Amino acid sequence: MLSLHTNNAALSAQNAIAKTQSNLSTSMTRLSTGYRINTASDDAAGLQIATRLKAQTSGMAMAMKNTQNATSMLQTASGAFNQVTNMLVRMKDLATQAADVSSSTKDKEAMQSEFDALGKELSNVMNNTTFGGTKLLTGGTLASSMTFQIGASQSETMTVTVASAMSGLTSSLSSASSNYTTAITNAAELTSNANATIQLLSDAIDKVGVVNSALGATINRLDHINSNLSNISTNTESASGRIMDTDFATESASMTSNQMLLQAGTAMLKQSNSMSSLVMSLLQ
User: Fold this and answer.
1) Which distant-in-sequence residues (6+ apart) come within 8 Å of 240 by Cβ?
2) Using CA of residue 178, residue 181, residue 184, residue 187, what is the dihedral sign?
3) Are residues 143 and 92 in contact, defined by beta-carbon separation less than 8 angstroms?
């Protein structure tokens, strides 16, 4: 029907152009940002899933930092115990040498001087080793239960305790250091106390080994946890990317198609607007 008031062809062309412009705008936005989902209206369910995955990967990234920091802390403590072991071995050598009758009183006094110096440094290491300003050994972090946050959720924690072993070690070190003292100057007493100290030092070395072994096992476990977190994080980020990221090949083809449709729609709108002139030709 020819009509001056209503041009159905023009209305249809205008509607098609509006839809094409909207689709073209969406494709250009996706290509410019690199994301398939830029607003919730693009894919509400997909955005919710991707947001949850993003929160998980972010939490796991922080958990990985936690494991690395915890490993550094435990390695610091383990390094200190290595030095403690070296000093205890030397102190045991001195006590063993001093327990022999071939050593004179002067020899034993010289050995005692070195023994005392090692005892002081042993006390310094045990009482003043710190990590980030916090004491680690005697009366420090290792003296109580340690809880590590090893994941992105509340339940992903690891609790390690060497408190009992640390208590026994501290007591053993105290006994070994105080048993062989400079207050004794008689050669026979020096020999007797040196001999008794040998076993105390052996016990102390064993107890250092127990604590250090537990720390080593924990460090290895944290390393495995870090590797597992890295693997999970990689796969989770890939899953999020498949939801959020733009497929450039698909969107490029869609943009080209919409551009062609827009040109065709504009041309048809121009043609439909000329139809009203046909009405006037009937009046001539």
Assistant:
1) 50, 53, 54, 57
2) positive
3) no
Q: State how far the Cα of 12 lies from the Cα of 244, in Å rounded to an integer.
A: 34
Query: Token pair for residue 277?
Result: 């002139």
- In 3D space, the residue among 190, 173, 195 whose CA is nearest the CA of residue 80 turns out to be 173
SS3 214: helix
Q: How is 1-47 classified by DSSP, letter by letter?
A: ---SS--HHHHHHHHHHHHHHHHHHHHHHHHHHSBS-SSTTT-HHHH
**Cβ atoms of 88 and 200 closer than 8 Å:** no
Each residue's pLDDT, cut to its tens digit, for the chain (284 residues) gives 556 666 677 777 788 888 888 888 888 888 888 888 888 888 889 889 998 999 889 999 999 999 999 999 999 999 999 999 999 999 889 888 888 878 777 888 888 888 888 888 988 999 999 999 999 998 899 999 999 999 888 899 999 999 998 888 888 887 776 655 444 445 555 666 777 888 888 888 999 999 999 999 999 999 999 999 999 999 998 998 888 888 888 888 988 888 888 888 888 877 776 666 666 666 66
Tokens of 229: 């977190």
Identity (one letter) of the amino acid at 72? S
Beta strand residue intervals within 17-174, DSSP E: 130-131, 134-135, 146-149, 157-160
